[in-house]
Amino acid sequence: MTIMVPQLGTKRILDFLIANTLTLKLYSNNVTPADTDIAASYTETTGGGYASKSLTQANWTVLVANPSSATYNTVQTWTFTGAVGGTGIVYGYYVIDSGGNLIFSERFATSVTPANGTVINVTPAITADNA
Questions:
Q1: Percentages helix, strand, coil for the chain, rounded to the nearest 5?
Q2: 13, 18, 29, 15: which is closest to 103 by C-alpha?
Q3: Which residue has the higher pLDDT, 38 or 61?
């Protein structure tokens, strides 16, 4: 038998997921997100004025629908002051919980090579399909 999670159940799962403070990080290794990834699969960007961002529960909006979604209310912006370390390239972002566990990740459609004044904007969102 297949488990059915109703729309309200999906909302509660998303509420539970965002109840912890999550941390948004950019990554600089050339990896495409996969089902078996862990936080250590990603190399956090360093240098160039970069710092990770804290995502608090109060700033998420959870929509009950099919699919249900949780979207962060404010765009997270990094304005770089120079080149970044490592590969010098930002490939995407990943989100971890307070225990350091990988929650989700996304590779940018086009990688970014930050220089002084480069801006990267991310609006984190999670979608959970009820089907």
A1: 15, 35, 50
A2: 18
A3: 38
